[in-house]
Amino acid sequence: MDASELARHVAALRTVAERPLVVGVSGHGGSGKSTLARLLTTAIPGSVRLRGDDFLDPSRSHRRSPDWDGVGRLRLVDEVLDPLRSGRGGAFRRYDWSRRELGDPEPLPETDVLVVDLIGLLHPEARPWIDLAVWCDVDLATASARGMSRDARLGRDHDALWRDVWIPDERDFDAGFAPRASADVLISDARGSTTG
Predict the structure, then answer these.
(1) How far apart are CA 55 and CA 95, in angstroms?
(2) Which of 32, 51, 39, 35 is nearest to 10 (CA)?
(3) Three-class DSSP category at 45
(4) Is CATH 3.40.50.300 the classification given to domain 3-195?
(5) 83 and which of 23, 53, 88, 105 could share a cystine (Cβ 3.0–4.6 Å)?
């Protein structure tokens, strides 16, 4: 299976789903989560992508944590996933990076396929609300090197964060929650083939 086959699989699941379908895309930082989520929403008409960065708390994501404490999984579930799956309306608040605070409430997207890409997503706090869990299966060293390179290209000096916080957090999260094992689909490269 490659990314386009995954998109066809999601489209097929959509036809039999009795409620909106939530596709969760996770993996190590730099593994291709955002790339895959963009590919899926481009390939699936009417689908909506929710960026993981909208549910991060930078004050907490820049310190060591065994469970990616800076990821607002409970807020994601309470404000988006649970209301969407149960057919209730509602509003949610994205993190506004320019103001460094939660933004103004906005209505839930109207869609029958929601694609969420987020680090630390395959955690017991959020996994029950994900219909199809996709793990970007890139080893930690490769993913981290890609992430560091991306950040450098964007002018972000995050090397110390990668080395001292994010890479150790990844190791702890893998050991504590086995996100790869809880995935329904493993993608070895968002641009190429998949396994599992």
Answers:
(1) 6
(2) 39
(3) coil
(4) yes
(5) 88
Q: In terms of Cα–Cα distance, which of 6, 2, 5, 14 is closest to 131? A: 14
Residues in the chain: 196
| Residue 56 DSSP symbol | B
Task: Give the C-alpha distances (Å, rounded to integers) separating 167 from 28, 40, 158, 172.
Answer: 9, 27, 12, 9
Tell me the three state secondary structure of residue 48.
Answer: strand
Taking Cα atoms as reference points, which of 131, 123, 111, 135 lies closest to residue 13? 131
C-beta separation of 137 from 187 below 8 A? yes
Position 35, amino acid = T
**Residue 190 pLDDT level (bands cut at 50, 70, 90):** low
Mark 69-82 as b/e (b = at least 16 C-beta within 10 Å): ebbbbebbbebbbe
Tell me the pTM: 0.93
Domain layout of the chain by residue ranges: 3-195
| 187 phi/psi in degrees, rounded to 5 | -115, 120
Which one, of 125, 111, 35, lies nearest residue 77 by Cα?
125
Residue 168's Cβ-side half-sphere holds a number of Cα atoms within 13 Å equal to 12
Asked if 10 and 44 count as a contact pair (C-beta separation under 8 A), the reply is: yes
Tell me the pLDDT tens digit for each residue of 33-82. 999 999 999 999 999 999 988 999 888 888 999 999 899 999 999 999 99
